[in-house]
Amino acid sequence: MLPDEVPDAVPHESPHAPSAPVGASPRALFEGPGEMRARCRAFDWGATALGAVDTWPASLRATAETVLASAFSAIVLWSPELVQLYNDAYIPFLGVKHPAGLGQPTRACWPEVWHLTAPIYARVLGGETVFQEDARFPLQRRGPDAPADDVYITLSFSPVRDETGGVGGILATLVDTTAQVLGRAAQAEREQLEARLSGALLNAALLLDQMSDGHIVLDPAFRIVTLNPSAERALGRSRATLLGQTHWEAFPASVGTEMERQYRRVAAEGVEAHFIHHYVGEGYDFHLEIDAYPARDGGVAVFWREISARVRLLAENEAARLEAEERVATLAAVLDNIPDALLVMRPGEITSANRVALDQLGVTSVESLQAAPGQASPLEKVFIHPSSGVVLPLAATPIGRAFAGERSHAQVLLRALGRDATRPVRAAAAPILTEGGEVLGVVAVLTDMTRQQQANAERDRLLAESEAARSGAEASFAQAQAAYAEARAASAELQVANRAKTEFLAVMSHELRTPLNAIGGYAELLDMGLHGPITPEQRTALDRIQRSQRHLLGLINGVLNYTKSEAGAVHYEVADVSLPEVLAECGTLVGPQARAKGLTLQPDSCAEPLSARADGEKLRQIVLNLLSNAVKFTRSGGRVSLECVAHGGGTVAVRVADTGRGIASDQLERVFQPFVQLDASLTRTHEGTGLGLAISRDLARGMGGDLTVASEVGVGSTFTLTLPLA
Q1: Going by DSSP bridges, is the β-strand pair 639-647/605-606 parallel, antiparallel, or unpaired?
Q2: Contact 630, 658 (CB under 8 A)
Q3: Spatial CB neighbours of 28, under 8 Å, sequence gap ≥ 6
Q4: What's this model's pTM, rounded to 2 decimal places?
Q5: Rounded distance, CA 250 to CA 253, Å?
Q6: CA distance 87 to 66
Q7: Starting at the edge strand that comes first in sequence, how are the strands of the sheet with 149-161 ordered?
Q8: Strand partners, 144
Q9: What is the pLDDT of residues 229-262, one digit of tens each?
């Protein structure tokens, strides 16, 4: 719908309205089973007036979640363009318009009914809830070239409030009542058919009443002794010309026929004969219905009636009967398959009931519904007032009022015979009247309203849940904003403290390096004898001073490297680096330490001449640190291995494995934290600041790679350096 087509119906967005909460991805919002959830996840909502899902307001997200979770047909229309989002149960309404109808403005999807729906949308967008029962909509859901389907729908359009308090969209729940509407039409057709059949039977009876019998009396010699005026008129001959002649003389075409045989049998045996005879002769062509009786004198009294018209009528009636029976059978089959219960009644008797009626009343046949002699009808105890729970006498129901000549309907509860449970029904009844207005019987239709009530309850529940979800979302958004502000403040404080720590470490490390370098220089001068000869004991002391100076200088250099890495001041010169060369060089440097400790250092093993994209110096620093740690933490007699292999995804891996004491699983990530030594006791045997692995991982990640560890206590550890493959 365009804004100028429903004036003043679409609320304008306030410039001070709160922005829509963000962060709800399509996968999170539309998570769950069903076709429409899957389509909503894959749909490009950013190309519609609704925008990307993470910009949707809480009210729209809550309504969308509610619609998709509903088992009833439901659709939400949002934004001034009324963009559509619907659930699985709504798909049958769309036909070939699905799945294109998802995300489409409703006017573009349903142009054929826009003249019907536009006024409704205007009312709903104005804040009004609109309910329609059995509304007819001609839907072109089989394609634009196919005729429209007349679909009858009971539906509810409800406004959905957005965060501004205005109406942001429309929630519609629908129930297809086409079958019920067509069932009532079929019932009306059946009533018309029964009326026509009643008129045909009445006409036939009138024709039979108007027929007059001809009468002839024959003596024992079969001479005509009398005939009545009806016979004269029917035969077209006077009494004078017929009296005294034998029947065979007057009507020679009767000789040797069934007529002669029956007359002679009546005279000879004194029995009656009733038969029909087709007489042809003397210019006659009659179908005669004949009753022959024996006379006292041995003659025969004949009563006959010309039934040619009746024979023709009977033939026509038989054809009509067969046709009517076929139509009645078809109508009965239709009525047995409609979802409503149908009863046809006469005073004191139920003449017919369809399958649904028998099921709702708890019986298997119409005979079970008949009243026993002297007892009330079973229907006297099946209808209950919906509010008071009082059993309604039949006279107080639409059926009873129909017997009084009144059409009516009412909402009641129906309790099946022999059962305690009840169901809500809409009872409607109308009288069957004669032409004079006399009530011959009643037709009653009982419509089960259980699904309708469930649909209404579901609609109310959906609206309540939508409102609750909207309120909850608003509260959550406010809490999230407060938490975000607190987190930003805490982050700013942490950054200030971190910078101060880094600057302090850098300054202190720099200040300590100057005197340490001086100590190392003077120790070397003393060792060279520039200040005079030294004793062996003095040389031993100088050696200890130099080792301690180099160790302390190494620790300070590690702190300086860490502060550079943490501050992002490390410069990388990335190029193609040959891994076999780097590993061979590092193995050579660490070999003396391994041999001195009694360890087996397996040479570097590269399956092929691999190269990595890395800074060569930084790569050597990482591998040397890993090898030094492996030698440091592996007992005498252990093994340290070094290898490189190509990984998937365009990466290469360098692995350093040892048979040392291993690392507990809950400590694996701690070894990469700065200043962490797993053996932190005062009696530990291994020196270091705990910065080597932290610096190595930062360097690896700075070159586009990573450093990880896998370990088992008592078995050993394997450190894996991954880098981009050159």
Answers
A1: parallel
A2: yes
A3: none
A4: 0.31
A5: 9
A6: 9
A7: 83-86, 73-78, 167-176, 149-161, 130-139
A8: none
A9: 999 998 999 999 999 999 999 999 999 999 999 9
